[in-house]
Amino acid sequence: MALCLNMMAQMTFNEDDWSSILAEAKAQNKIVFVDAYTTWCGPCKMMSAQVFPDTKVGEFYNSNFINTKIDMEKGEGIDLAKKYNVRAYPTFLFVNGDGELVHRGIGFRPSAAFISLGEAASDPDLQLLGLKNRYKKGEREGTFMINYAAALQDGGMDVSEVSDEYLESVMTYDTPKIMEFIYNTTTKPSQKGFKIMSENLADFYKELGKEKVQSRMEYALQRAYFDDMDKMSAAYKSFFPTDSDRLIAKYKVTYYMYSRDEGANAKFAEAAITYLDKYESGDANELNSIAWHTFETTEDEALLKKACGWAEKSVKLEPSYYNMDTMANICFKLGKKRKAKKWAKKTIVAAEKQGESGAETKELLKQIKAL
Q1: Residue 337, CA distances (Å) to 10, 49, 368 in order
Q2: Using one digit for the tens of pLDDT, what is the confidence trace for 311-363?
Q3: SS3 assignment, position 299
Q4: Eight-state DSSP code of residue 67
Q5: What does the alpha-carbon distance between residue 248 and residue 237 come to, in Å, rounded to a whole number?
Q6: Domain coverage including residue 110
Q7: What is the tens place of the pLDDT at every residue in 64-84?
């Protein structure tokens, strides 16, 4: 009895083909919720382990939607990913019985935020389709434009046109509300918001924080000029003259990490050492990313020892299974069996606590024990 109640409380997912699901949605006058996932996506697994089983989530989504899970890299999912422009995972699609996109969201979100997403999808004043239709009819009132921009942004869609148009209509840019809007919707250096932010950096730093504002502007600049080191360097020197050396050093690490140029791995190692030796990083994800890429791209013992130090600092800043796994792998590659075994065991415990299987680390532990 308890098992049955528990199953009823969880989200239930329709496993029919897409056309049958749409037909059912049309017959019931309901919206289809689609968990657009991939098998390799960590946040997708976290949604399945932590959020979909939640009682309140299950009650809300089972009552209001026909739910389905579709792997975007298999079967019907391949064409659906193209049709609905799914590029990030997880993507949450809300589609009506005619196959028309009603609303969407991207990225892991905890139970309360996931329910809020479903509430927005059910509300004509907040859902993307309703806002889009009102925009097409000429509505441009301030609150409406802010809501439309937020819906586009939450769905991982281009918000630049709506942002620019709204900012053309406002009289002043120095209120907290407008500054937050500019920060949230600026994704390209060609946008009006970027120009306002760059010309009023002191005000934005004071209101939102220097690191936060710089990160947003960096994101916009890298989207436009990432593959052009000269343009990126010039932009950093122009917009952040006092911080340009650090930001350029950091950018070079990322550039060579993703570069396919000949000799990129050696240049990455040099850039990583230059950056992390000169500028202390307090970002666990950054340290782990650099350490892992070093692990994957070199056999040099001295470099691997450097990477081990970066990974260890990452774990101290934010102990999680992903950077513990990096520690285990680097120690194993360095031939430190006891230390590798210790970190592999810690990784598996941490992974299972976070709803992950830890399968890759379990395989690593087998290899360590076999030595």
Answers
A1: 42, 32, 6
A2: 999 999 999 999 999 999 999 999 999 999 999 999 999 988 877 778 899 99
A3: coil
A4: E
A5: 9
A6: 2-122
A7: 999 999 999 999 999 999 999
Contact in structure between 11 and 61 (CB atoms under 8 Å): yes
Does some domain include residue 32?
A: yes
Structural domain contains residue 44:
yes
**43 with 90: CB under 8 angstroms?**
yes
Residue 211: what residue type? E
DSSP type of residue 242 = T
Q: Examine the residue annotation and report whether 41 is marked as an active-site residue of this protein.
A: yes
Tokens of 224: 């436009």
Catalytic residue among 4, 41, 308, 331: 41
Q: Which pair of tokens denotes residue 337?
A: 């069996």
Decide if 4 is catalytic: no
Question: Does residue 83 belong to any structural domain of this protein?
Answer: yes
pLDDT digits (tens, 9 = 90+) for 276-316: 999 989 999 999 999 999 999 999 999 999 999 999 999 99
* Distance from C-alpha of 272 to C-alpha of 116, rounded to nearest angstrom: 41
Q: Is 230 helix (H, G, I), strand (E, B) or coil?
A: helix
Number of domains forming the structure of the chain: 1
Q: What is the CATH number of the domain that holds 90?
A: 3.40.30.10
**Residue 167 DSSP symbol:** H
Catalytic-labelled residue, pool 4, 44, 308, 331: 44
**Distance from C-alpha of 304 to C-alpha of 229, rounded to nearest angstrom:** 27
Instruction: Supply 163's token pair.
Output: 């942002």
Sign of the torsion angle spanned by Cα atoms 137, 142, 147, 149 = positive
Cα 136 from Cα 132, distance rounded (Å): 6
Backbone angles phi, psi at 45, to 5 degrees: -65, -35
Instruction: Give the pLDDT of residue 1.
Output: 43
The DSSP call for residue 50 is I
The rounded distance, in Å, linking the Cα atoms of 88 and 47 is 14
Whether 81 maps to a domain, the answer reads yes
65-71 and 31-37 strand pairing: parallel
